[in-house]
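Z., the sequence and structure:
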Amino acid sequence: MPGQTTTILFDCDNTLVLSEELAFEACAELANEILEKQGIEDRYTGPSLLKDFVGQNFRGMILNLCKKYNFTISPEDLESYVDRELGKVIETLEKKAQPCPGVMEELDGLQEMKKYKLAVVSSSALSRVQASIKKVGMEKYFRSDWVYSAATSLPKPTSKPDPAVYIYAMEQIGVKPEECVAVEDSRSGATAAMRAKIPLIGYIGPYDEEERKKMIPILRDECGAKYIMKHWSEFPEALKAVAASL
């Protein structure tokens, strides 16, 4: 029925799996190679790249580097860098990825309840998302055809904050925005959910205290999150807050 949550749509990176820092270390190497070839002196570390581009996939990151530093890159070179980055990141994730604290217990509980449809909606390439959730033992919670990627699943690759991947996921699952809840940790992801008109739970678990203070108003005030979680143990309370808002 309208107004009742039937479907939970989870972002992956730093929402389900602690993958962003690992991925951005690999991304920084390639970003610096691009800048060097353009004669640009600035260089990124993994943390500084993460700070500037959290929530975006590598394709979106390169395109935003082009805008920031006012240069262009050919479609062929763009695809080459995207392919190289994906291989580097997957190799790292398969060795080191860990689940976000407390999330496995909540997914266990949701699976036992059999009340909700569960899906993953990510900006990252599908093979990267699959590698992440497989490494941490999460694949049992999600149907393989309900794992979606803005970079891979769509006819035209994109990245959050574009809401296209959320809209596509809802079409495929057969649900409306008011039946869903999205869980996101970044401005770009939360903005995508908001633009898709999906009720939002914000998650700030992976951030340090300084970043948490910055992210709370972004997720709550700018993107309309109904609840901000510091730890996954708060998830049942977050769902109640969403239900009360409908």
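The chain has a mean pLDDT of 94. The CA atoms of residues 123 and 153 lie 10 Å apart.

Let me know what you think.
H.
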